[in-house]
From TrEMBL:
The lineage of its organism: Eukaryota, Metazoa, Chordata, Craniata, Vertebrata. Belongs to the exosome component 10/RRP6 family. The keyword Transcription does not apply. Component of the RNA exosome complex. The catalytically inactive RNA exosome core complex (Exo-9) associates with the catalytic subunit EXOSC10/RRP6 (via its N-terminus). Exo-9 may associate with DIS3 to form the nucleolar exosome complex, or DIS3L to form the cytoplasmic exosome complex. The RNA exosome complex interacts with cofactors C1D/RRP47, MPHOSPH6/MPP6 and MTREX/MTR4. Interacts with MTREX; the interaction with MTREX mediates the association of MTREX with nuclear RNA exosomes. It is found in: Cytoplasm; Nucleus, Nucleolus; Nucleus, Nucleoplasm. Residues 788-805 have a biased composition (Polar residues). One of its GO terms (biological process) is nuclear polyadenylation-dependent snoRNA catabolic process. This is Exosome complex component 10. GO terms for molecular function: 3'-5'-RNA exonuclease activity; metal ion binding; nucleotide binding; single-stranded RNA binding. Residues 716-738 have a biased composition (Basic and acidic residues). It comes from Oryzias melastigma (Marine medaka).
Length: 860
C-alpha cells in the first residue's frame, strides 16, 4: 500500500511539472522569449552588433580593393554574401515577393537587387501596419456602420441626366455615350478644314432660287486652282490677296449671299391665317431613312422640293475639333423621317440649297441661332423662309422655351435626354441615339401648327404677333458665321469673364499660354477646351511653377497635348517669371459702373469726381502711355500759346516784391483752370514699381521711361539752362549788394566827418541845413539795401548842443567838464576805442601797446 501511495504521488508530481512546462511554453512568444519586449530587445541588440561589425569592414575604394586582392578575403566575402542573399530570398518568398535575388545579370545586378529589396520592404511594412491596426481593433476592410434603414443617395449629374419625372418613378442616372480612340472623321474629308487665322469666306458657288445673281467672286472659285503661287496659302487669305491683285470689290467676299432675297421676302397670307393642326403619325408607324450616299441625297432633295414645309435639326460635335463638326442633319416631313450622315456627304450637302432656299417652302427649326451658322460653316447651306419655334415660345410667354417642354406641352411626350452630350461621331450609330435624333424633328411640324393657332388666338385673331415671329426668324436667317480670329488682345476677353487679379508675371503667363493654346489647337484641329481648359490655364498662371512637374501637378486630369508639350510650356512660364513684378489694375471693372453707381450722367472722361489715381489704367505694351504723353505735350503747348497770345507779361519780380501782381494772379488762375484730359491714360502714381525694373534695359518700364525722357529732352534742357541762369543772376546780385553796402558805409562816415568839421567852424549855412545823423549801427541781413534820407523841407532850426551826448567825443576817459570844447573834439574822436565795423574811422586810432619793453622785442 505504501509503495502504491508513493508511486501515485510521484505520478502527480510528474504531471504537475509537465503542465507547468506546457504553460510556460504557451506563455512564451517565441522559443526563448517570454514576450514581445524581450524579442524586440534581443533583435535591437543583434542589429546593433551587425552595424558595428559592418563599420569595421574595409571602406569602398582603395582600401577595399587592397583587401580584395587577397584570395582568402575574396572567398570569405563571396561565401558570406551568398548566405545573406539566401536569407533575404527566404524572407521575401515567405511574404510573397519576388525572391530571385541571386539569378541576376552581372551588369545590372546591383540595381535590380536594390529595387527588389525596396519593393519587398514596402510590402512587409504595409502588412506590418495592417497587423498592428488589427491588433489595436481597427479593420480597414470593414464597411462603416450605418443606421438601420439608411440608403446612400444616388449621384445625379444634372436635370438632363435624370430619367422619370413622376413622383412614383425613381430617378436613374446614365453615363455619357462616347467611345475612346475613335477614328477622326476629318481625315476622310475631301476638302481640308481651314483653321487658319483668317476671316471666314462663304463656301457657296451655286445660288439656287436667286433673285439677285451671285457675285462673280463666288462663281469663279475654280480660278484658285490656276494660281500656283497661292497653293501654300490658306484659302480665305489667298482669295483676299487675289482680290487685292485684281482690284476687285472685297465687300462681296463677306456679304450674305441671300441678303437681297431675305430683305424682300414677304410672308403669304396663308401663313398668317389660322391653320388646322395636322396630327403627327406615331413614331413606330413612320418610315425612317438613313441617307449616306449621293444618290439618296439627290432623291431626298427632290422630295423636299415638292413639299410646303419640313422640320430640320442638327447634331454637332465641338470637343475634338477647333471649329466643330456637324455630324447629323435630321429632316422630318408629315409622313417620313430622314437622318443624313453629314460626315460622309460633307462635300455634297450643297445640293440641299435648292430646297432650303426656296421661299415657298417653310423650314421649321427650334433654336436655329447655332444651326444657321453650322450649316454655313460646314456645307455652305442657307435658309430662306424660316420659322423658329423658340421665338414663338418666347412670344407666347410659355413657362420654358426648351424643346422638351414643347413636346410635353403640345404632344404629351417625355423626351429622353440621355444622349444630349453624346459623341455623334460614332459610326455605326446605336439604335438609342438614332431614336433620340429622330424625335427632335418628328413632332416639330405639329408643334408649328399649334403655335401658329395660339399666336393668333392670343392676339384676338390679328396677325401682328405671328408676323413678329416671322420677322425675328428672318433676322436669324440673316446671321453670318464669324470665324474666331486670334489677336494680341484676345486673352483679355477671357480674363474679363474670370474676374481675377493678376500681377504682371501672371498676366504675361496667361497671355503666352493663351497664344500657345490657340496656335496648337489650330494645328492639331482640337478644341481649346481639349488642348488646355481655362481653369487649368488660370491655375498655371497663378502658381507659375518652376519645374515641368509643377505644370503637370496643376492639371487634373492632364490633357494629352499638355503632357506632350510640357517642356515648351515650361519655357513660357520661365519667360513670364523674368518680367518685373508689378500690380495690374483690374481693367475689366469700369470705374463709372462700380465707383459711382448713383451718378447717371457719369462718363469715362468725367474727371471732376475722381482722383487721378482712380482713372483707368491701360498697360498693354506701352503704346497707350506714349500716345498719352504726346497728347499731354500738345496740350501744354496749346496752353503756352494761349499764355503768350492773350496774357501780357509783367516785369520780372524782384526780391523786394513779395506778392505777384494782379495780372499775374489772374493769368495763373486761368492756366490752372485748364484740366488736362489726357493724364487719365497715364499709369497710376500709387502703383508699386520695382526699383530694379527702372534700371533694367530689358524691362518695359525702362523702355517707356526712356521714350519719355527722349521726348522731353529739349524741355528738360531748357529748364536746366533757365535754372542755371537764375542762379548766376542771384549770385551776381548778392555780390553787388554786399559791395554797395560796404561803399555806402564809408561814404556815410566821410559825410559825418565833413559835417562835424563844418560844425567846428560854426559858419551858418545859407541853404537848408541837414540834421547831424548819429553813427549808424550795423544793419541786419534782411535790410542790406538802405534808403537815402531826403533833405527835409522844413524851416532851419539851430542845433541845441545841450541835448547831445558829448561822451561820444570824449574817447575812453570820461571828463567832468560838460561844456563843449571844439579844440579837443578831434583828439577825442581819435581815442575812440569801441567802434563797429560799419562806423570805422578814417583816422588812426591811438591805443596802448601790450608788447612790453623794447629790449624784449624779438629780433628780425
Amino acid at each position: 500500500m505504501s509503495l502504491s501511495k508513493g508511486n501515485g504521488k510521484s505520478k502527480r508530481e510528474v504531471l504537475d511539472s509537465n503542465s507547468e512546462a506546457n504553460e510556460e511554453e504557451k506563455s512564451e512568444l517565441c522559443p526563448g522569449f517570454k514576450d514581445v519586449d524581450a524579442f524586440v530587445k534581443h533583435g535591437f541588440g543583434l542589429v546593433l552588433s551587425a552595424t558595428k561589425a559592418s563599420a569595421g569592414l574595409p571602406q569602398p575604394g582603395d582600401e577595399y580593393d587592397f583587401y580584395r586582392s587577397f584570395p582568402g578575403f575574396q572567398e570569405f566575402c563571396e561565401s558570406q554574401g551568398d548566405k545573406i542573399l539566401h536569407c533575404m530570398s527566404q524572407i521575401m518568398h515567405h511574404h510573397g515577393c519576388r525572391s530571385h535575388v541571386k539569378d541576376q545579370n552581372k551588369l545590372t545586378a546591383v540595381e535590380e537587387r536594390f529595387d527588389l529589396v525596396v519593393d519587398s520592404n514596402d510590402v512587409i511594412l504595409e502588412r506590418a501596419g495592417i497587423l498592428l491596426d488589427e491588433a489595436d481593433g481597427v479593420n480597414r476592410n470593414q464597411k462603416p456602420v450605418m443606421p438601420a434603414g439608411f440608403q446612400p443617395p444616388k449621384i445625379v449629374v444634372s436635370s438632363w441626366n435624370r430619367k422619370g419625372s413622376s413622383p412614383s418613378s425613381h430617378s436613374e442616372t446614365y453615363r455619357l455615350h462616347h467611345t475612346k480612340n475613335i477614328a477622326r472623321p476629318q481625315l476622310k474629308f475631301k476638302e481640308k478644314i481651314d483653321n487658319s487665322n483668317t476671316p471666314f469666306v462663304p463656301k457657296i458657288f451655286i445660288k439656287p432660287n436667286a433673285v439677285k445673281a451671285l457675285p462673280s467672286y463666288f462663281t469663279n472659285k475654280q480660278i484658285r486652282n490656276e494660281r500656283p503661287e497661292d497653293l501654300d496659302v490658306p484659302a480665305a487669305l489667298a482669295d483676299l490677296i487675289h482680290q487685292q491683285r485684281t482690284q476687285e470689290h472685297v465687300e462681296d467676299m463677306f456679304a450674305h449671299p441671300y441678303q437681297y432675297e431675305l430683305d424682300h421676302l414677304t410672308v403669304p397670307d396663308s401663313l398668317l391665317s389660322k391653320p388646322e393642326p395636322q396630327m403627327y403619325k406615331p413614331i413606330a408607324e413612320t418610315k425612317l431613312s438613313f441617307i449616306n450616299s449621293l444618290e439618296d441625297l439627290v432623291e431626298l432633295n427632290e422630295k423636299l422640293c415638292k413639299l410646303s414645309e419640313f422640320a430640320v435639326d442638327l447634331e454637332h460635335h465641338s470637343y475634338r475639333s477647333f471649329l466643330g463638326l456637324t455630324c447629323l442633319v435630321q429632316i422630318s416631313t408629315r409622313d417620313e423621317d430622314f437622318i443624313i450622315d453629314t460626315l460622309e456627304l460633307r462635300s455634297e450637302m450643297y445640293i440641299l440649297n435648292e430646297a432650303f432656299t426656296d421661299p415657298t417652302i417653310v423650314k421649321v427649326f427650334h433654336g436655329a441661332d447655332s444651326d444657321i451658322e453650322w450649316l454655313q460653316k460646314d456645307f455652305g447651306l442657307y435658309v430662306v423662309n424660316l420659322f423658329d419655334t423658340h421665338q414663338a415660345s418666347r412670344a407666347l410667354h410659355l413657362a420654358r422655351n426648351s424643346l422638351d417642354h414643347l413636346l410635353k406641352h403640345f404632344c404629351n411626350v417625355d423626351s429622353d435626354k440621355r444622349y444630349q452630350l453624346a459623341d455623334w461621331r460614332i459610326r455605326p450609330l446605336p439604335d438609342e441615339m438614332v431614336q433620340y435624333a429622330r424625335s427632335d424633328t418628328h413632332y416639330l411640324l405639329y408643334i408649328y401648327d399649334c403655335m401658329r393657332v395660339q399666336l393668333l388666338d392670343s392676339n384676338h385673331g390679328q396677325p401682328g404677333l405671328l408676323q413678329s415671329v416671322w420677322n425675328k426668324s428672318r433676322d436669324i436667317s440673316l446671321t453670318k458665321y464669324i470665324k474666331p480670329v486670334f489677336t494680341e488682345d484676345s486673352y483679355l476677353e477671357v480674363l474679363k469673364k474670370q474676374k481675377r487679379s493678376f500681377n504682371t508675371q501672371q498676366l504675361t503667363a496667361f497671355r503666352l499660354l493663351f497664344a500657345w493654346r490657340d496656335k496648337l489647337a489650330r494645328q492639331e484641329d482640337e478644341s481649346t477646351g481639349y488642348t488646355l481648359p481655362i481653369h487649368m490655364m488660370i491655375k498655371i498662371s497663378e502658381e507659375l511653377p518652376k519645374e515641368p512637374q509643377g505644370i503637370i501637378a496643376c492639371c487634373n486630369p492632364v490633357p494629352p497635348l499638355v503632357r506632350q508639350q510640357v517642356n515648351e510650356l515650361h519655357l513660357l512660364v520661365q519667360q513670364a517669371r523674368e518680367m518685373p513684378l508689378l500690380k495690374v489694375r483690374e481693367t475689366w471693372r469700369p470705374l463709372w459702373d462700380s465707383e459711382f453707381p448713383e451718378v447717371t450722367l457719369f462718363g469715362p472722361h468725367d474727371t471732376s469726381r475722381a482722383s487721378e489715381t482712380d482713372l483707368p489704367y491701360f498697360s498693354s505694351n506701352g503704346r497707350a502711355e506714349v500716345l498719352a504723353l504726346e497728347l499731354i505735350n500738345l496740350f501744354e503747348t496749346a496752353v503756352d500759346y494761349f499764355n503768350q497770345c492773350f496774357l501780357w507779361k509783367e516785369p520780372e519780380v524782384h526780391d523786394d516784391q513779395n506778392s505777384p501782381s494782379v495780372t499775374q494772379m489772374k493769368a495763373r488762375r486761368i492756366i490752372e483752370s485748364f484740366e488736362n484730359p489726357f493724364r487719365m491714360y497715364l499709369p497710376s502714381t500709387n502703383v508699386h514699381v520695382n526699383k530694379n525694373a527702372k534700371f533694367d534695359p530689358s524691362s518695359k518700364i525702362f523702355e517707356i521711361s526712356k521714350r519719355w525722357k527722349l521726348q522731353s529732352m529739349e524741355q528738360q534742357q531748357k529748364e536746366l539752362e533757365a535754372k542755371q541762369k537764375a542762379k548766376e543772376e542771384a549770385k551776381q546780385q548778392a555780390k553787388k549788394a554786399e559791395s554797395l553796402q560796404n561803399v555806402a558805409t564809408v561814404r556815410q562816415q566821410a559825410a559825418v566827418s565833413a559835417k562835424r568839421a563844418a560844425q567846428k567852424i560854426e559858419t551858418p549855412a545859407s541853404e537848408v541845413g541837414e540834421v547831424t545823423p548819429k553813427p549808424a549801427k550795423k544793419l541786419k541781413s534782411s535790410e542790406k539795401s538802405q534808403k537815402t534820407e531826403t533833405p527835409s523841407q522844413t524851416s532851419f532850426k539851430p542845433f541845441d548842443y545841450s541835448q547831445s551826448d558829448l561822451k561820444v567825443f570824449a574817447g575812453t576817459k570820461s571828463k567832468d567838464n560838460s561844456q563843449f570844447d571844439p579844440n579837443r573834439q578831434g583828439q577825442g574822436f581819435k581815442k575812440k576805442k569801441h567802434t563797429s565795423a560799419g562806423n570805422r574811422s578814417m583816422s588812426y586810432m591811438a591805443g596802448k601797446s601790450d608788447r612790453g619793453f623794447r629790449h624784449n622785442w624779438p629780433r628780425r
